[in-house]
């Protein structure tokens, strides 16, 4: 079982030793100390206290930020590793000290605020903060409700929080990520954004995962849509790499009148329901400015509703300190009247499972169905995609027969559901496990690097 220790600076300024709990030295003598990528020679002396005491010169040589910390300790061979040091890679830094990441500042402040309770040291950085020659990073830390800059060694692990696909595609960012992993053997988790079509094609390889997937195709021809409308009555046309519900259109076919309807939200935010005599006319009018090769077509599902409004569910899963998947948050998203999606920006609202299902048995039944689906899909996705995944946000639906469907999986899930007052504990849990998985990954990189890099 992992254990945390308080790291204190010796009051004797001439003391260059390191005093360790005897239990840390029971397997073999230790002669080196490590924090992040920094490793120094040190005289390690056992004592009977449950804390690690280091001389000031040792503390400074390790470049541990701040004055004291409570951190994990791992020993391997003759080295004691304290930390872990987790670097959160992102972009879009500003010159404003109170809002270093603009509108995203508060999200990162909340993430870094759980540092002490998890037992890690976490900082933000971008490509511009790295000093390759010194092997140091000018990291941004959140302490005492304010942002501070400390120069620290390269981290044990990197949590990828690049904000969008555009930043991820930048050549400089690609080089930074590749160099940190290849030259410094620093593992990163949650690299990249999922592509909707790619995720579905990969999950189609898993027989059980297939049962959660609505029929989905890249846009190729009107004949595919005509056939799907005949089979399902309605379909959704959405951007292959979209987010926040932008650009989603619901197309419906009225067999009695042989007419087509398109439900969508226009650029001014107005909800529209427009009638057409042919599918070609619909696409010519609604999609004339869109590149159809970047769209996908998905089977429409007759979902359960709340007072006539669409309902789907956001389920967050996280890997914990043992590297195991856990369901960390569950909420219903109820669409606005006349909206083709349940996104908040389109008039949707967040509700708890208890608010949607008044009956206790229904609450338990559907919560179990959603949890089981999300956990299985997490494992299936992990086996099908490249890189290390530590968190996933699933958009799931339940049809009128009680069957669970997967609409989307997000590798960098948004946090809008946590605006609900009854989801504060889930909000905290997701942040803790996000960093907690970094502990698991750091220990793996120290003790079994071949499992991560081969």
Automatic annotation (TrEMBL):
One Pfam family matching this protein: ATPgrasp_YheCD
Q: What is the lineage of its organism?
A: Bacteria, Bacillati, Bacillota, Bacilli, Bacillales
Listed name of the protein: Glutathione synthetase
Q: Which domain of life is it from?
A: Bacteria
Q: Which InterPro entries match?
A: YheC/D (IPR026838)
């Amino acid at each position: 079982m992992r254990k945390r220790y308080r790291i204190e600076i010796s009051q004797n300024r001439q003391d260059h030793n390191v005093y360790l709990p005897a239990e840390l030295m029971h397997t073999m003598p230790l002669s080196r100390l490590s924090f992040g990528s920094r490793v120094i020679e040190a005289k390690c002396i056992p004592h009977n206290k449950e804390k690690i005491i280091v001389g000031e010169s040792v503390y400074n040589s390790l470049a541990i930020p701040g004055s004291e910390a409570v951190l994990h300790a791992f020993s391997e061979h003759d080295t004691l590793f304290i930390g872990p040091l987790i670097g959160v890679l992102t972009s879009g830094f500003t010159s404003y000290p109170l809002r270093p990441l603009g509108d995203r500042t508060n999200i990162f402040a909340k993430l870094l605020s759980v540092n002490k309770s998890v037992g890690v040291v976490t900082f933000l950085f971008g490509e511009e903060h790295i000093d390759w020659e010194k092997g140091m990073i000018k990291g941004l830390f959140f302490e005492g409700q304010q942002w501070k800059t400390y120069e620290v060694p390269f981290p044990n692990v990197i949590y990828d929080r690049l904000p969008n696909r555009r930043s991820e595609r930048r050549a400089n960012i690609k080089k930074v990520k590749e160099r940190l992993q290849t030259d410094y053997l620093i593992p990163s988790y949650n690299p990249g954004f999922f592509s909707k079509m790619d995720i579905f094609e990969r999950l189609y390889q898993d027989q059980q995962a297939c049962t959660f997937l609505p029929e989905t195709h890249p846009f190729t021809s009107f004949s595919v849509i005509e056939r799907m409308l005949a089979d399902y009555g309605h379909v959704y046309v959405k951007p292959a790499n979209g987010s926040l519900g932008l650009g989603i259109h619901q197309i419906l076919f009225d067999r009695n009148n042989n007419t087509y309807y398109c439900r969508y939200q226009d650029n001014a935010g107005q909800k529209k329901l427009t009638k057409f005599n042919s599918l070609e006319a619909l696409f010519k009018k609604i999609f004339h400015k869109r590149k159809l090769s970047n769209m996908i077509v998905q089977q429409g599902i007759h979902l359960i509703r709340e007072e006539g409004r669409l309902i789907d569910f956001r389920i967050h899963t996280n890997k914990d300190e043992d590297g195991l998947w856990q369901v960390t948050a569950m909420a219903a998203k109820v669409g606005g009247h006349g909206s083709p999606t349940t996104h908040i920006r389109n008039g949707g609202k967040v509700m708890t499972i208890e608010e949607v299902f008044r009956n206790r048995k229904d609450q338990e039944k559907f919560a179990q169905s959603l949890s089981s689906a999300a956990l299985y899909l997490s494992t299936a996705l992990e086996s099908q995609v490249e890189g290390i995944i530590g968190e996933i946000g699933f958009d799931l639906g339940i049809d009128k027969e009680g069957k669970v469907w997967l609409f989307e999986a997000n590798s960098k899930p948004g946090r809008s559901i946590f605006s609900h007052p009854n989801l504060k504990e889930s909000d905290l849990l997701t942040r803790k496990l996000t960093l907690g998985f970094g502990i698991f990954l750091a220990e793996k990189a120290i003790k079994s690097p071949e499992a991560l890099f081969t």
